[in-house]
Design goal:
This protein has a two-stranded antiparallel ribbon. The protein is elongated, with a radius of gyration of 15 Å. Helix 1 (7-17) crosses helix 2. The N and C termini lie far apart (39 Å). The chain has helices at 7-17, 37-55, and strands spanning 21-25, 31-36. A hairpin with a 5-residue loop joins strand 1 and strand 2 (31-36). The relative contact order is 0.15. Helices cover 43% and strands 16% of the residues. The chain is α+β, with helices and mostly antiparallel strands. The protein is built from two helices and two strands.
Amino acid sequence: IPVDMDQEEVGHLFEIYNINSACVVDKSNKLIGMITSDYVLTVLKEEAEEDALRLAGVGDEVITDGVFK
């Protein structure tokens, strides 16, 4: 996975190919790290929450914030 790939794209790759981990490489294809499926699930959950808030017209609030915050 290229280091500059979007998080949602990485999530889709994990879903399409049903993989548990993947290597992260820089522009010269040098290994710089790994991504695991548990991290991808966390990121996708945050992205889904952000999308839901954006659809509701809410700003930087978190979904667990109270009405008056």
